[in-house]
Amino acid sequence: MERILYQIYRITAPDGRCYVGCTSQTLNERWRQHRLRARDGKHDGHPFYHLINEIGEDKFTVELIEMTSDKKEKYHANV
Asked: Rounded to whole angstroms, how far apart are CA atoms 11 and 17?
């Protein structure tokens, strides 16, 4: 059985506000999905997506915080 690797990541705006997420995809793919969701307006008013549109997606930094294969551990990352 193949183990799934989860990546816990942080996307940070220039003013220090951040979004922390977890994905089994690559970080580039997950960030691409966030950007598309912000552009398409399919985000139910989530402040993170409004901020992407407001200040521009190129102003954010995306960083890997931790990787884990333990499904439970992904909720207890050290952020």
From this structure: 9
Q: What is the pLDDT of residues 14-69, one digit of tens each?
A: 999 999 999 999 999 999 999 999 999 877 889 999 999 999 999 999 999 999 98
Residues 18-27 as b or e (16 or more Cβ within 10 Å = b): ebebbbeeee
pTM above 0.90, yes or no: no
Q: Is 74 within 8 Å of 5 (Cβ atoms)?
A: no
77: its two tokens: 């990352």
Helix, strand, or coil (residue 46): coil
CA distance 41 to 54: 12
What is the distance between the alpha carbons of residues 56 and 79, in angstroms, rounded to a whole number?
24
Q: What CA–CA distance (Å, rounded) separates 8 from 78?
A: 9
